[in-house]
Write the structure tokens for this entry.
Amino acid sequence: MGGDEDVDSPDRDDGANSSGPDENVDSPDRDDGANSSGPDEDVDSPESEEPFDLGDQAPFQSDQEPSPQTPAERGFITKSTGVPDEAENTDGVEDTDRFEAEREPDRPKTHHSNGDPDPRAGVGPAFNWFRDTDSQWIAFLRDTLVSILIVFAVGFLLFAISGVWPPLVAVESNSMDPHLQKGDLVLVMAEDRLSPEYNAGGTGIVTAETGAEQDYNRFGGPGDVIVYQPYGSDSATPIIHRAHLYVEAGENWYDRADPDVIQADSCAELGACPAPSEGFITKGDNPTTNNYYDQERGISTVVEPEWVRGTATVRIPWVGWIRLAASELELPGLSVTAGALPAV
């Protein structure tokens, strides 16, 4: 036969095909034996491979329940080296993070991947986020809230000290000039706090008459400067004036009044005389605009002790102008009139 000829002999069980060096012989029905071929022939003999040696590994027992897989057996760490298998880590998650997440799957995540607190994780993380975030609007809101909290904290601290709310009042006129001036902010103290024993009728207030005798001075003059509601009206603007006399109900106080102040010749010509009730006779310190008693001009009748809101204790110059500038907001109780009339 020729050298390039292919021969297929399916019916022959043994024997050899006679062929040239380039001939290919296909004998699918032969169970054993060898193909005669040239030096370029490929022989596939799977029976000649050596079997896989299990070594010391124990065979898998079908009646045994398999033990839980470790992170190494799941492919996160190689068995041979014990180091992370970089080929297995294709999702961008660190092996240590993966292991922690699988070890504690129920632990809540309180931070984003960049380290910022997650406000959705609870009250604590939300507070941390609100405190630390660099957002412009959140920072503005945070600073505003902090300022408001500081103001309220200072206010409540002053209230605890003074016992009066509001503890600070702004002077609206010059009737107490030169000792108190328009725009001053004044701290008001409850009249029964730190009161000397010679106060008038157990009210805690020292009058100018008694202060001159006891050398008790406040704001450049004898006696206490009080803040009171004229005629006891809560709707009227409070007045800050000095308490000059303390009178009993029905008392003719004309003879106790300063003759340089009154413009009457008798009690009948003097306003609120005789006294309709027990209380204080008051007057502003300004000798030019307020050289008269409040009761003589009808600014108020005799000031009853219950109408007194407190005594002036500390003066802070100029700060009251802030309140006066916002007077049209009509915030109640934050300003006082130190003038001839109770109106603003």
